[in-house]
Amino acid sequence: MAEQITITEDEAALYDRQIRLWGLDAQRRLRASRVLLIGLRGLGAEVAKNIVLAGIKSLTLLDHTVVTEEDACSQFLVPRQDVGKNRAESSLHRVQQLNPMVDVQADISNVGDKPDDYFLNFDVVCATCCTLTLLHRIDEICAAHKIKFFAGDVFGFYGYMFADLGFHEYAEDVQKTKAKENIGEGEPATKKAKIEELETHVVKKSATFTRLSNAFEFDWGTTEGAKKLKRTPNTFFIIQVLLQFMEKFSRRPEVKTLLEDRQALEELTPGVLEKIGLKSDYISPEFARSCFAELSPVCAIVGGVLGQEIIKAVSQKDRPHRNFFFFNGIDGSGLVDQIGD
Amino acid sequence: MAASIFGVFDEVTQNKIISSKVLVVGAGGIGCELLKNLVLSGFPDIEIIDLDTIDVSNLNRQFLFRKEHVGKSKAQVAKESALHFNPDAKITAYHDSIMSSDYDLEFFKKFDLVMNALDNRVARNHVNRMCLAADKPLIESGTAGYLGQVSVIKKTVTECYECQPQAAQKTFPGCTIRNTPSEPIHCIVWAKHLFNQLFGEDDPDQDVSPDTADPELAGEAGKAALESEAKADAAGGIKRKSTQAWAMETGYNAEKLFNKFFRDDIKYLLSMEALWKKRKPPVPLDWNNLPQDVPATTHQVAICDQRLWSVQECADVFAKSLSSLKEELIKQGEGGMLVWDKDDDPAMDFVTSAANIRAHIFGIPSKTRFDVKSMAGNIIPAIATTNAIIAGLIVMEGLKVLREEFDKCKAVFLNRQPNSRKKLLVPCQLEKPNPKCYVCAPKPEVTVILNTHKITVKVLEEKIIKGGLGMVAPDVEIDDGKGTILISSEEGETEENTEKFLEQFGINNGVRLKCDDFLQNYNLTIIIYHRDKLEEDKEFQIIGDVSEIQAKYLEDKENEDKQPNGLTEKQATEAATAVEDEDEVMLVEEEEIQQITVSKKRKHDEEPEVVNGDTVKKQRLISDVAEHYDDIIS
Ligand SMILES: [Zn+2]
Fold first, then answer.
1. B438-543 has which fold?
2. Across chain B, what does the average pLDDT equal?
3. Pick from B149, B252, B255: which is nearest to B199 by CA?
4. Is B175 one of the annotated active-site residues of the chain?
5. Rounded to whole angstroms, how far apart are CA atoms A247 and B410?
6. Contact at CB, A55 and B60, closer than 8 angstroms
7. CATH assignment of B5-168+381-429, among 3.40.50.720, 3.10.180.10, 3.40.30.10, 3.30.565.10
8. What is the fold, at CATH topology level, of the domain defined by B182-363?
9. pLDDT (tens digit, 9 = 90+) per residue, B411-450?
10. Which of A212, A239, A275, B550 has CB 3.0 to 4.6 Å from A139, enough for a Cys bridge?
11. For chain B, which residues make up each domain, given as ranges?
12. What number is the ipTM of this complex?
């Protein structure tokens, strides 16, 4: 389908600086892709901005929740006076303004109520602000139908993104130094050296991704797990506690219940760790002091990485990060790790 | 806003943000993202400055701008859009150059933190100096395609922006451009020079005619060329007057111009036989007899810019763009001139067609207009996601700066792929200031190698002190005990000096010049090293740290003894004596100086790493990132 899409001169002017980076073919594929974005908090806003600017075909904003005071920390798509209104609907206008050439729609229903075949309308599903149970369900549906699946969230200073692209084929530029003998032959030695240049070859590659459940149910208590653990970012386990909190209370930790949520997180931590084969004090409960609301710069970083991974996935250009990216705003680390296989 | 909601930040950070005043320099790709992050994080008082207006090619990433804003001030529109995110923020926008004297030391002193979101080295150098002078912390940043970096600069604590020599812009030897191009870029540079010769400012460095001083013509071949030079002058009669005056006389006649540059000049080049002994000789073209073959395009593309043109098409575009440019020039009236701009269609058409015609003549592959635009315009590809990540990292570093935790600040690099330690974002320890830095050292000194008989005061001021050393309005006096004033920042005061050679002021080897830039609050001593001839016919060379060159000298001298490096015997002797006289080495090539930077290793984070307890120390080459640290200045 992507092959039939032509880029107009107007689009070429608008997308000039990125076509110079990823080429016309990648832009054509972007232009054909239909994306579902679940969750329109800070991270969702960043992802929406990045992929709409890049020039996808259509974006559906799906969120049944309403704007709160906390959105002022990072959700730049909703007007300040819209507290109490639906997040997807409130975001629609500004998302559309980012790029009139993209078809943008808002859906205010609850993703949990959507039947399986709803997801078949999309090439990419990106789920934020979802519980682990929901993420597992959507991942399985996407895997069964070859839909590219992404998940991500930001809690205060911490954030992550996950990708399950199934069996994914992509093109990668490989650079080789090559002396241009035929032209450089007659050049004096001093000039000849300068004629050596990097040559870019496009290489076709593929990668197979694992399901989200394999990562979250991975047993770190085994010998193999313990070996891997040494090099696994702590942020992964912080995220697990936070997702467990959402599972248990059917909501995120919130600043309006700051103290009790902090305590609940601290209490939840040992159990979450033990369940996946870790010592109950493997991570310090200190993180509970810095995981409230969504920091705008953290959303920008995680949303930037996540947005670029979506662009890579649909344009089938460049090696995707497999399969997690973690950002920890307290220690400043930004790591890619392969967990679950 | 994060800082006005209790529980998001710790109390110290929260209070620092609420009471801060910050400056953002640049409202482009990084600037838009940064402004968003700052207002959402709760920074209450932000000033933003940008000289630029909005272009349609900005809209794929500078998300505070929309189509209806094209042509308007970036700073102003960015302010208005960001106020929607947080109407309580106080944002002051300046549609102006940060290098203007309005933004003096007092201006910079108002801020707790300055953040650069710039795309050129000149402005970066200037803001670096202003922040050093005002003793304000600066966060520097840059992106290129998928890559980016953020760094913190704090006077006396970290390296400044200019502590390490900066890679020089890539240039090509004049004879390659004029006589023996072998790459598309050589033809593109030539075509840009041709544009300036025909429509722009006359610059002797941008001659497009065959170069009879090509070192390859030394000896016998040279004689032949010299003989034929007289012949050519007689035949064409063109060299005696400026190219522009001649073109104007012909009424910018496409046929006449084409036949001069693509037939007669090429025939003349062919007469320099020594050049073509081992090279494929060029084939002159005639306006009335052009090859009709169409270059093979890999596949049909809809975008005109991405299609290769035949020679005939190039000639047609050449003619059409000539007449449009002629009209533009006439509109300017007497003494008018055009400045080449990649976004001006006729100017771009002219360079594409002229470059491809020349490429055809020399058997060099042709390029699409799209590719020529990238190369001729030094376009750095830019995307929203990289800018977003870098702007996020700027704020993360900014929070540490506000808390004055400079020991925790890092230089952070965004890579395309994670490194072997899984790091996609790679933090590096900030370097200590370079004690020999000619900007941030307590008593800055710099060595300039030049020929005092050939360099005028004007060249010293414009190309060396302003261009090379980044001063804006210098006062220069000779450190001769008399305080002879060479250059004054007051207009007209030293005008009578401008055309004189340095030597006429008694400036010779070892003389010290005291330069003072009032705006930058910057004093610099220039030590002059006279040399009769510099390598590659450079006009001058700026050497930040002489000792590093001295260390390299012995090695070089050995090499030189063995191999005269293409110099004639006479030149080699001259050079050798010059070195002895000066007791210093000046034969280090600019590239070697760059090597010093490149091979200098940057220490990786030395703290125990988060990746659980293992404290593997890894070193990271600056060269990994040097290429994308700085946008190329066109
Ligand atoms: Zn310095």
1. 3.10.290
2. 83
3. B252
4. yes
5. 36
6. yes
7. 3.40.50.720
8. Arc Repressor Mutant, subunit A (1.10.10)
9. 999 999 999 999 999 999 999 999 999 999 999 999 999 9
10. A212
11. 5-168+381-429, 182-363, 438-543
12. 0.95
